[in-house]
Amino acid sequence: MSKRRASDFSLMIATILLVFIGIIMVFSSSYPEAYYKMNDGYYFLKKQLLFGIIGLITMFFFMNFSYWRFKKLSKIIFLACIALSFLIFTPLGVEINGAKRWINLGFTTFQPSEAMKLGSIIYLTSFLARKKEKIKSFKKGLLPSLVIIGISCGAIVIQKDLSTSATLGLSLMAILFIAGMRKLHIAIMGILGTAGVAFAIYLEPFRLKRIIAFLDPFKYIDTIGWQVVQSLYALGSGGVFGLGLGKSRQKFFYIPEPYNDFIFAIIGEELGFIGCVTVIILFLIVIWRGIRIAINIDDLFGCLLAAGIVSLITVQAIIHIAVVTSSMPPTGIPLPFVSYGGTSLLVFMSAVGILLNISRHTDLDRS
After folding, report:
1. Per-residue DSSP letter, 93
2. Is residue 1 very low, low, confident or very high in pLDDT (cuts 50, 70, 90)?
3. CB-based contact 237:249 (threshold 8 Å)
4. Greatest Cα pair distance in the chain
5. Tens digits of per-residue pLDDT, 34-89?
6. Cross-strand bridge partners of residue 109
7. At how many degrees (to 10) do helices 112-130 and 300-324 cross?
8. Where are the bilayer-spanning segments (predicted)?
């Protein structure tokens, strides 16, 4: 066990800046809906600010919580995440906007799929670190990995949340690639994953409509293409410098829940191209520092855990921005650290806390 050093300062500051921008943009984009539906324009701001503070405490806690302990606790964490996923089918499960993906804790709601993201990454990296000599084996490497990914993604798919499941699946496959699994085995997993997504789309007609809307959103501007078109209007009207903070037009009930799945569009509208580039640069700093940490850590578990966390942040950020810019079919994926959502914010800030703890055991430039 190496001597602990200072945490990666650049990673910490970039994360805090993203959370700060998120709190501001959640307030700006949610004010109309909060005012007219909740009779309190500060409703979403207060909740996001509260979870931002709790998330900061959580991040600092995990920054000082030795990441090696997760290797011993991985199975318990994974089983707990599975149990949480099935709680949505009990009386504790609540339905919001036609989807039953939340658990009612009384004082707030909790989204178990967000916990499953981090829990499955911890468990898969722990498994691969223990079986590093058998990663290339079909029977002892590929099949157990398929089971872990199948259970992780399946626990989310049963909540009818295909986009989150696909995001997690891509992140877990990235871990397998980094761990050194045979390319043929990864190709097999990719084929199985693609087939699974295609089957899920076939079972739910509304998902097929989203693909149709992506191909020509302006043709269906009054129906299935509405969200995408309004998002493009927001980005286009923002120009280089934006309309100004708080001056978005699309947040006035043109884009549904603009503070969540389409918050990047409001950033583009109010802060312009400059604001979008700033957010992207901050994400690139987080990704770059995370990659540096994964490369420089001597421990295989730490390397794979860091790589898994970075993969999740990267994949989810890319999908969110791609959806908002109509570069892929629309789907409900929040922007890490920025979009409204207490569970998502807590999980991602906890993940960065783990990443910061791993950085304390590496020999790299922390400036």
Report:
1. E
2. very low
3. yes
4. 61
5. 999 999 999 999 999 999 999 999 999 999 999 999 999 999 999 999 999 888 88
6. 104
7. 140
8. 9-29, 49-67, 76-94, 114-129, 141-158, 170-203, 224-243, 263-288, 300-325, 337-358
Q: Which amino acid is at 288?
A: W
- The model's pLDDT over 325-353, given as tens digits with 9 standing for 90+, comes to 999 888 889 999 999 999 999 999 999 99
Q: What is the DSSP letter of 103?
A: E
Burial of 49 (0-12, 13-18, 19+ CB in 10 A): middle
Q: Which residue has the tokens 């693609």?
A: 194
Kindly state the DSSP code that residue 102 receives in the 8-state scheme.
Answer: E
Other Cβ atoms less than 10 A from the Cβ of 312: the count is: 25
Q: Which amino acid is at 160?
A: K
Listed residue (135, 114, 127) closest to 74, CA to CA: 127
Q: Which strands sit side by side in the sheet containing 93-96, from one edge to the other?
A: 93-96, 99-104, 109-110
Which residues are paired to 47 by β-bridges? none
Q: Are 78 and 70 in contact (CB under 8 A)?
A: no
Q: Closest Cα partner for 51 from 334, 364, 308?
A: 334
Quote the percentage of the chain above a pLDDT of 90.
62
Token pair for 230? 């309004």
Tokens, residue 215: 């191909």
What pLDDT, on the 0 to 100 scale, is given for residue 72? 92
Q: What is the spatial distance between Cα 200 and Cα 212, in angstroms, rounded to a whole number?
A: 16
Q: For residue 94, how far is the Cα from the chain centroid?
A: 21
Q: Which residues contact 229 (CB under 8 A, 6 or more apart)?
A: 217, 218, 221
Full-model pTM? 0.93
Q: What is the pLDDT of residue 171?
A: 94
Q: Of 111, 67, 70, which Cα lies nearest the Cα of 87?
A: 111
What single-letter amino acid sits at 136?
Answer: K
pLDDT at 208: 83
